[in-house]
Amino acid sequence: MEDETEKQKKHLAMVERLSKRPQSRPTNAESSAESTSSFLSRFSELKTSIDFQLHQSQSLSSDPPNLKLHFQNISQSISDLEKLVAQNSYLLPSYDVRTSLKTVSDLKLSLQNITNQLIPKTKFSFKNKPTKKDPKDTAIPQPKQLPQPSIPGTRLAARESPGFRNKVGEVLVAEFRGSEVGEFAVSDLDSCEVRIIGSVRALFVHRLKNSRVYVGPVTGSVLIEEAEDCVFVMASHQIRIHSARKSDFYLRVRSKPIIEDSNGVRFAPYCLSYRGIEEDLRGAGLDAESGNWENVDDFRWLRAVQSPNWSVLPESERVGIIDISNLKNGDEEI
Amino acid sequence: MGLLSIIRKIKRKEKEMRILMVGLDNSGKTTIVLKINGEDTSVISPTLGFNIKTITYQKYTLNIWDVGGQKTIRSYWRNYFEQTDGLVWVVDSSDLRRLDDCKLELDNLLKEERLSGATLLILANKQDIKGALTPEEIAKVLNLEAMDKSRHWQIVGCSAYTGEGLLEGFDWLVQDIASRIYMLD
Ligand SMILES: Nc1nc2c(ncn2[C@@H]2O[C@H](COP(=O)(O)OP(=O)(O)OP(=O)(O)O)[C@@H](O)[C@H]2O)c(=O)[nH]1
Ligand SMILES: [Mg+2]
Question: What molecular function does GO assign, one term (chain A) (predicted)?
Answer without folding.
Answer: tubulin binding
